Amino acid sequence: MKNDKRRQKPDRKANRTILMRTLFLMAVCGVAAFIPLFARLYDLQILQHDDLQARALSQQTYDQPVTANRGYIYDNEGEPLAMSAEAYYIQLSPRQIKECQEAYQKKVEDAVKSGDESKKPAYPEPTDQSIAEHLAEILDLDPEAILKRLSKTNSMYEVIKTQVEEEEADQVRTYISQNGLTSGIYIMPSTKRYYPYASLAAQVIGWVNYSENHGAYGVEAIYDDELGGKVGRVVTARDGRGNQMLYRYEDYVDGVDGNNLHLTINATIQHYCERILEEGVEKYEVQDGGFVIAMEPKTGAILAWANSPTYDLNKPRTIIDSGLNQRLEEIMNDPALTEQEKSDASVALLMEQWMNKAITSTYEPGSTFKSVVLAAALEEGVVNENTTFTCGGSVMVKGYDEPIKCSNRSGHGTQTLAQAVANSCNPAFIDIGQRLGAEKFYDYLEAFGFTERTGIDMQGEPRPSDILLWPRDRFTNVDLAVASFGQRFQVTPIQMLTAAAAVINGGYLMKPYVVENITDSSGTILQHTEPTVVRQVISEETSQRCRAILEGVVKPPGTGKQAYQAGYRIGGKTGSSQTIKGKDHTIVSFLGFAPADDPQIVVLLAYDSPKPTEPGGNLTSGQWYISGGSMAAPQAGKLLADILDYMGVAKQYTEEEKATMDLPVPNVLGLSLADATASLKEAGLDVRTVGDGEVVTGQIPGQGMAIPGGSKVIVYLGEEKPTDKVVVPDVVSTGMNRTQAQEAMANAGLYLKVSGLATGDDVKAESQTITAGTEVERGTVVEVHFIESTATGGAETGL
Amino acid sequence: MAQKLKRDLTVQEQLARGPLDMPFLMLVTLLTIIGVIMVFSASYPVALTEDKNPTFYFIRQLFFGGAGLVFMWVISKINYQRFRWMSMGVLAVSIVLLVLVLIPGIGVEVKKARRWIRAIGPLPQFQPSEVAKVGVIMYFASRLSKRNTETPRTISPRSYLSGPYNYLQRIGFLELIPYGAILGVIVLLMMKEPHMSGTILILLGGAAVLFAAGIKLYWFAAGGALMGALLLLMMSGYQSTRVQVWRDPWAYYKTGEGFQIVQSLYAIGSGGLLGVGLGKSRQKFSFLPEPENDFIFPIVCEELGLVGAGIILFLFALLIIRGFWIAIHARDRFGALLVVGIITLLAGQVFLNIAVVTNLIPTTGISLPFFSYGGTALMIQLAEMGMVLSVSRQIPAAKQG
Question: What single string gives the DSSP state of each residue in A208-270?
């Protein structure tokens, strides 16, 4: 008992300890431990919920874009210039390919284990090497590059090629299905841009950057939002291995196709412009390209806009222009350049071909600007048709030490206003400028829009502050003098054309535009561009007077006479000006419009720097005199004739022209000589008889052939019509004039058809359609192109 | 064996037939049912990717859950006083098993660790450490319950050792030697596997019993310091990356070390307040590894939200508190210590598992009781609950008003 008592005491104490410690454990394990756990759950599930959920969703869902079809671009007659078609891109999933390879090896192992050869897969092992080789062959890629992509075995998405055509995609499809790679290589739909006319209007249309599917240049870039449409999405659930779980959930946002653009550009006129431009660039050995813009003067709608050098819109990164290619070669072969410099330089060349220089670059307008000065002077009444000017070959201007020279060093003598314009006489225009005064002159610079942007919907129009024009407060008397004939300041070609259009269209400065309509995929017009009058600068009457005077420029002896085209009343103004590159870099240009009484079209054509034979020379190696009058004018004349023909503008012949027109030969067979003669006379043709019969037994040329008016039709009266061939005479190498050529042709039994500068005395044959020495049938018409034999004007004179 | 009549029973036997603690039983049953349902939801995508029947894991877990509940009831019928003598056997068996598991051919190697004894005959594959946990708690409880009745061994005062001996006796070192030896052997064997998390749990269970039994607090301070030093030592190498991953799992997402924990956080975070709905987890589709096992709780959070997860936490808390209530009211010290050990172990497992999946502590593989897939673990868990219920039967009835 004693012993028991002694043990009881600590026993109670021990029990107490156990109780206290158990209670302590209960509090810790049952309550305290759960507080941080719950707090942490609250933190994760409530406070961080949005962030974690978003991250989780991004891995749990597979967000596939549904490419929207990019809108088409049409010309003004609905001819597609840019189209979209289905294409594909090929995407690898190296991680899944690795799984496929492992699965293959497992199958082979299983087959070996079970001893059943038939269980082996029927296709060879899809090693990285073989996959790379097969895909490289189908897609025309470098197998090494594919191998590199395949080695990224953590990656799920490796796009190896975009813009893959259906045919290639099919081959890939076959390859992957036959090699057990359906969950490793994917063929994803996308779209591809086609430009059916390749390089046509390249700088206006621009191209699409495929990696981003956004327009990079031209209207493709400006109207990217309209064209691009809205990319749709398919969101599907996927598991951690990247497999889609279509049965889980799916969300579909339909893509909206892009809208279509209908340009004011006409593909045919554009084609004419490009042809003429390219022809001139070659003929005149032009070093820095050129441009042509054709505009509807009454609306400001751009009908054509050509640049040289140009490129193929389907391959924007390839240089096709021979001049640029030559420069590229020089760069690549230059040992002094580093790789980086080479690549920079070749990118600069690409930029040059993408650039729409007729809007991004400024130039000195030269004498074409005189048309604007003329309009201002007539509107202000400081001159009229009866004003006369005297030109002594040069003139002194207050504030300038040197005399300012005229193109004609010996002077034009006394001229009327119209003659001064036709001669492009600088002293006369200095006089006109002085009569206007600096303030008025500057007012008109502003009114014609030279101090602001035209507002055209094209990329790259420079800010007015970037254009080299004097500020009003620093416009001195000397500035006024040189500005009067278009020198020492810069404008953009589109500004010049828009101002010129205002001179001839009745005085309205229009806002030029290239997009006529925007339609949706069902054809509904969403947006229509109405011609916008910015302001009226001169009166209708002044404009009409300007047209008459400018038409005179294209008549001999005007500087623009080479732009003359029989039957078309063309008006215009030539121009030559030095570029900022300095001597031997002359821009020759021609501003032309037609018909002069009711202009339907106005064009500005320019060639930048034809190459002279020697430094400071005035002639190219082709013996072309470097001036707007002898280079740009004939090209512009041909262009205007083509365009007017296409537009269906009726020809209006003057009496003089009618004499040289082509006329159809009527049938006179079987008629009496008297009747035949009368019939031919009526048709505007002459008669030459062979034989002495009563009745016509033969005629040369036959019915329906067209021969120049006044030509002799040979009528055979009983005598046998000769069937032998005749030899075409050479009229070009001897530089015959029109009369001589006519005679030579008549002697050979052929007919002469005149083209080019038909009227006037100082013309010479430049080319003939049928080469000299060719044997042809009697009565064949040979067309001979005439140009003026003496050249005038040049860079320094601003002609 | 014919049932004895009540009057023939000894007092002890009568007590052993007392009523089960109903709240505890209900909580265990409820958690087991919820756990099995969650295993179904979390495991079917895993079964599918393994080309198994979608219900493969569910059926097994359902079977073991059912069998486990029966097993629990059977164990609860055993008079827990018998566990005193059984404890020696269980401990001995578990040590033998821990040795056996290290022998290739018997132990299954998974991820460079031998923790499992492979299925032999009708016995399923199981972890001997599960048995060891019970063994340690049972043995410690039975031995410590007799602590104050044991006559301290004396030594001749004339012996030259008597001075230090008495000192060690006084500070309580001597009585700790057997416990320390047992734990030492088990820890050594388990670190051979290696099995870090299991070791921690066994130490936790043992320490809980020692703590409740009244061992002087400074021993726990010393033990804690020792553990802390060991942990610091191990934090070099692999373990240190573990800490880095814990601090910024996203930085280790790409390299793979942080992948599981990041996916776990995605799952928990996606759940929000109300969850995405039972069965609608997205993270279980090959994103979150082991969604049916150690990382089942994130799926619970994702599907049932903070509300569902909170309810489950609450049920666990209730279970733990009720467990300690049973311990406090137990008829004797052995019962009390046994229950304290089992419940503390349970609480530790719940805390560690949830703390790991929420990235509150660095990752270590601890399963969630009643939830994580694993037949034998669930059976042993329910057997332990059976022991607690057995103790609850002998709680003396409250004195009548």
Answer: EETTTTEE-SHHHHHTHHHHH-B-EEEEEEE-TTS-EEEEEEEEEE--BPPPEEEES--HHHH
